[in-house]
Amino acid sequence: MPPSQLKQLKASLRETGVLGRQQSKKQKRQNAKSGVGAQNRNQRNAALQAIRDRFNPFEIRPTATRSKFETTTRDDAKSTKATGRRPGVTKSLGEERRRATLLQEMNSRNKVGGLVDRRFGENDPTMTPEERAAERFARESQRKMRKESMFNLEEDEEEFQLTHMGQSLTLDGTAVDDFDGGDLGGAESDDDEAPRKRKRVGEDDGDDEDFIDFGEDGEAQPERKKSKAEVMKEVIAKSKFHKAERQQAKEDDDDLREELDKELPDLFAALRGIKAPAKPEPPKQDLDTMNPERAAMLREPEGKDSEKEYDQRLKQLTFDKRSKPTDRTKTEEEKIEEEAQRLKKLEEDRQRRMRGEQLSDEEEEQESDKDSFFQGEEDEESEVDDAAAFGLHTQSYEPRPELAVEDEDDFVIDDDLVETRSNVSLSVDESDMEEKEVSGEEDGEESEEEDELINGMTLPTAGSATASTAVQVNQTADGKLAFTYPCPENHEEFLEIIENVSGQDLPTVIQRIRALHHPRLHPDNKAKLGRFAEILVEHVAYMANELAEPSFSIIENILRHVHSLAKTHPINVAMAFRARLREISEDRPLSLLPGDLVVLTGVSTVFPTSDHFHSVTTPAHLCLARFLGQCSLNGVSDFVTGAFASSLCLQYQSVAKRYMPEFINFTLNALCNLAPLDMPAKHLAFPLRKAHQSVKLAPIKKVMSRKLQFRDVKTVPSDAQAQEDLKFSLITLYVSLLDTASDLWADMSAFIEIFTPVHSVLTHIRQCFKNKLFAAGRDHVQATIDKIDSHLAQSRLARRPLLLHNHRPLAIKSAIPKFEENFNPDKHYDPDRERAENNRLKAEYKREKKGAMRELRKDASFIAREKLREKKERDAEYEKKYKRLIAEIQSEEGRAANEYEREKRGRAGKR
Amino acid sequence: MPSITNSSSKKRKVVKSTGAPSSKRRAVAEEDVFSETLSKVQQLEEQIAESRKYYNNIATLLSMLNVDNSAKKPELAVAVSLCRVFSRLMAAGNLSESSRDAENEKLVVAWLKERCSEYQNALLSIIREADSTSQVTALTLSMRLVKETVSHIEGANSSVWSGLFRNIIEALVEARDGEEVRGEFLTKFVKEYEDIRFHTFAQIAEYAGTRRKADIMEILISLLSACDEAPGSDHQIDVESFFAVADPNNKRLRTVHGHKRRAQDAWLAILRNNLSQAQRKALLRIMVHTIEPWFTRPELLMDFLTDSYNEGGATSLLALSGLFYLIQEKNLDYPQFYAKLYSLLDADLLHSKHRSRFFRLLNTFLASTHLPATLVASFIKRLSRLALNAPPSAIVVIVPFMYNLFKSHPTCTFMMHREIRDKDFAADIEKEGYEDPFDPLEADPTRTNAIESSIWEIESLQSHYHPNVAAIAKIISEQFTKQAYNLEDFLDHTYQGMVQGELGTGEKPLRKTPVVEYQIPKRIFTDRLLQEDGGLDSGAGCFMRGLWDFS
């Protein structure tokens, strides 16, 4: 049988050394001195706590789950930690907290207002009243000492101090009962850092008689002995004086201001840099005639006024946008350099596109995308409303004939319309302003660029030329050419417009249409011009196809118009070109018309053919290549067309130098077909296509080479001699094409493979040209062969085995499973982040909900308990009262009974 | 057969009334004439049925058939009624003679037979010459006759098939504008009835045994190839569904093998005949799917296929698949197969329309990982050479194909990456350049030394004008992370498709604003403002202006 609880307790107390031998007094003193006592006390407390725990087994409750066997997957921290919880402690803690919060709330329910005691230490039960008072006083004096800065003017005004009976509480003063003062000052000690609060407190207590605010006048300090009424009087008097003074000053100010106002325009003029006219001397104020006081006052406010003005100006300036230095006029060299920089940047962009890299400025692209979007909208809009408004527009712009300038340079019109930088600032009239707002910034940017280009490239003379030529033109222009033309909606309309216009005047007409529909003039014009650009592209093809002798200077002119329009309407022009290409690829992929050739040439000038990918040039390339690769070879004319297409190929590749297999195939085929003798039948690297009718150069007559003409594409001369000449020229042309191609592709690693067949064909041609009838072409062929020979030799020397895979070798794929360090089965290793997050949130929500419910339940039971307690209290009170009353009554009754008894006895006694 | 009569007569009516815009009266008259003949024919027919004494009416009817000198416009009603007459006679046994019959009876039968053959000939000439409706009717009638003869006249089985049916086939083949009637024959008879198919094969085999003209061969080929597909080995020949009663002695008719045999004979006869180049190609094209299943002994095709394969060019390409079938299935040993295959890679291959077909096969042939690397390297090198002159659609096939080859034959990857370790050799190369060890003229793909070479050609194609092609060519210089490219995705590209891919079909807004050349050239075609530049033309496009005179 174990010993009794009491014995056990005693034993354990002794064991831990709580109960021990009584220490001697000396020892105690020593310990207290050395601080061992405190340490001992701590130790003893801990030991006592442990013993208490041990002897109260219900204090600690083991965890709900009983301990399980040790497994590898259980994390150690949890298993060791699980010592159990103390329901009693937590319960009492919860109870405590509720009493502090919920009970308060409950008690203050249905009650309004109340007092919050914020005095320092008021709620601190550990402080004795003396300590509290001392602390409050210390804080107050500290606050007074710590005046943040000597320039803090606010502080002065708001400063108040603790007083008692009108006397300030200072240490140097007479003895003060700090108890009373403490109560007042403690209010703000809670939050003494915020002067705002202090002020509020001051206002609250403002009606307190004891609390006097001397904030207004600092000099009240030395004259402390004055009574309050005196002080107030003084203050009133002073303020009256000041008011009068101010009124006086204001009158004077007004006079002065009027005068100054008069001078203001001069000041502005001076600011603008225009020499101001001599300022009239301000009328001298005869101060002498005034009384000196007033004069002084007048002078003083003047100074004040200027100060004020200065302040105002200063404020204005701080709010003003900081003035920036304007671009100064650039010198010629700088301009040239800038231009060079710009061109260099454009060239770099082109190079990047050629390599197929994305443009670095993505935003720009996005922006332009946006532009295109808007433009599309505009297009639609214009289509809707143009039909009605079209005629009106042309009418309204009639009285501007000076725009229709005729000049040998076609782009002069642009210059007139698009302001150059020099005159853009001042002469913008209102309509232009509006226009600018409407058309947005992108337009301005673009047009500026265009304008700049036109300035730099095509038209060195600016507005002056326009002015001079305008007069000239008005005199010389024949009356037939109208000054205004409607902007055509489709090609038919355009053809109608130019029906009566001679070919030479066509550029002028186009120019006038462009001028009349400049985007600045009407928001719809941008769309209209876009449409017009498309029509022009169509017209170029039309001209080359339909007209017997198309004038190339006019086509060139139109193409240049198209190009300049393409700068503002890239989408429209590109779509127009793409439409042409689509037509080619659908209707006649293998038999190009002259118009198609011109369009393809136009593509090469308007769009950068060197781009890695381009929405117009890439299909154009394909069209050309398809033609060269698959076209039917019927007669000489096909070879002429092919020659043109081949030349275009090289033109396209002149910068990017990309390889076109079809070009080589076609050229060699053509040479084999045109050569006077058949190629020896041997292994050819390219597929040989025979022409349906022989186009061999006949070795009959002496032939001469000539420069091929574009019209050869259309008509083959019927004359036999001319035809032979043509064939001979074709051979020469093809040879020179190969010559150029060998230059272009000299750096290719497969140059040898590409040009060995070329070499053999050329050698064959040379063989054929041994005939003296063909002497004219001999040197040319020989030169080309020599060139290719040298290129071949060079390329042989430069040939190295390929080293394409210098990159880091691929890692061998590992089959090791992904191993989780510190795997925890409780944790969710969900690879799907979103789902994992979701689950986590759900679990948290559930936990919180449970917790909240538990808390609420406990709150309810607490409230019920409290109510019960209150009721019990009330009942007890009532009971007590009741008992008291009963007792009272009873005692009274008893007394009455006694009296009665006495009386009775008395009477009985009397009897 | 009244339905046919009705329909045909109706048709005629329709044709007449719409075709010839005649006056009302005349139309009425014609109508009258027509109904008159119709009633007359009916009357004659009924009389024949009534009594034998009206047998002469057959002759009358035959004369009314209107096919004496040319069968262009036969009276179909008459033909139909005659068919009925003869069918009835056959069913009644009036057309079969027995030894017991009296002499005059025999005379009658002989006379009737004569008329019958006369009628048959008339029908055949209709098939040969008349318009398509009549042809179809005549075909139906003659097939009906065949059926009646077989079922009612005993012992006539083989004679009918080799006689009348054979004539029908001949007439069909030689028919003028006979597409429709042949189609009718195929759908109504050959595909319906297996015995008809059987006999058709037999007759065609016989017919094609002699040399025929090219157009006839064309017809024969189309007839044969349109026949049903070959029955599987587990297929049961259903005697019940035969067109005519089967000859019990003819065992072949009842087995699949027998049918196949006939078909095989027919095809062989055609293959042995003189074929034009186009027909040969056509045959090769349908070889695997249509012809070969019919063959019980496919090795019989060997001669034809090897001959075609040796011919070279497109024919060889087409023969490849058939040959491969034999090699694969029938264990055909074709010596020098790969050498021959290698020789097929010539300059025209990539431009031929059979390109995708060839690459599919080539993919199969080179799929084996047991092929020597030298051989694979030769193919790679040859293909890359050819790619230099190939259209973009071919290049996009070649490069992924090569990739797959490199992936399955890692030894060949030296062709992409070759580091020279030997110091002396490296110095040598540095000085004189690397001589390509590849011998393009070597015919044997194992001796070309291609594995020592590099594919500079593909590297050059990385700067192809078409961005997509260039991008594809770049895969050989990137890491080979992909297991293999699915060749099928690259096979069927064309210029048209590529252009359309770029341009789209409709006016769709561009995704990106196209960049415009920043510089407007001073001149495009002419010598405009040339003096300003000091007379020297050096701007953009000067190349064109130098070569061409625009005026």
Automatic annotation (TrEMBL), chain A:
Residues 868-895 form a coiled coil. It holds the Pfam family Nop14. Residues 204-220, 359-368, 376-386, 429-453 have a biased composition (Acidic residues). This is Nop14-like protein. The keyword tRNA processing does not apply. It comes from Penicillium diatomitis. It is found in: Nucleus, Nucleolus. Involved in nucleolar processing of pre-18S ribosomal RNA. Has a role in the nuclear export of 40S pre-ribosomal subunit to the cytoplasm.
From TrEMBL, chain B:
One of its GO terms (biological process) is ribosome biogenesis. Signal peptide: none annotated. InterPro entries: CCAAT-binding_factor, Noc4. Residues 316-473 form the CCAAT-binding factor domain. It holds the Pfam family CBF. Residues 1-27 are annotated as: Disordered. It comes from the Eukaryota. GO terms for cellular component: Noc4p-Nop14p complex; small-subunit processome. Belongs to the CBF/MAK21 family. This is CCAAT-binding factor domain-containing protein. It comes from Penicillium diatomitis. The lineage of its organism: Eukaryota, Fungi, Dikarya, Ascomycota, Pezizomycotina.
